[in-house]
Amino acid sequence: MADQEPLTAATAAGPEPTRYADAMAELEAILAEIEDDAVDVDVLTQKVARAALLIRWCRGRIDGARVDVERIVAEIDPGVGDT
C-alpha cells in the first residue's frame, strides 16, 4: 500500500467542469461504472476521488446560484427576506 498515491485533486484527474450539467453527466457515468462491478479496485479509488471532487464543485455552484437568486429577488423587492 506504500506505493499508492495519496488522494488529492491530482488523483481525481480530469479537468474542472465548466457547466453544472457536464459535472452531473460525469457523475452519472462514474456511478454507472461503479455499479457495473467491473471497475478495477485501483481505478475505483480514482473514480471515487473524481466523484468527490465533482460533488464539491456542484455544491459550490448550487450555493453560488442560491446567493445570486436571493440577491436578484432582493433587488426586485427589497422587503422580501427581511425578518
Topology summary:
Blueprint: H1 20-35, H2 41-76
How does this structure look, described?
This protein has 83 residues and is mainly alpha-helical. It contains 2 helices and no strands. The chain has helices spanning 20-35, 41-76. The radius of gyration is 18 Å and the shape is elongated. Residues 1-7 have low confidence and may be disordered.
Q: What does this entry show, briefly?
A:
The chain has 83 residues and is mostly helical.
Percentage of β-strand residues: under 5%
- What structural class results from the helix and strand content? mainly alpha
The total count of helices amounts to 2
* CA-based gyration radius: 18 Å
- Ends distance: 55 Å
Quantity of strands, as a count: 0
**Helical proportion, percent range:** 55-70%
Entry keywords:
83 residues, mainly alpha
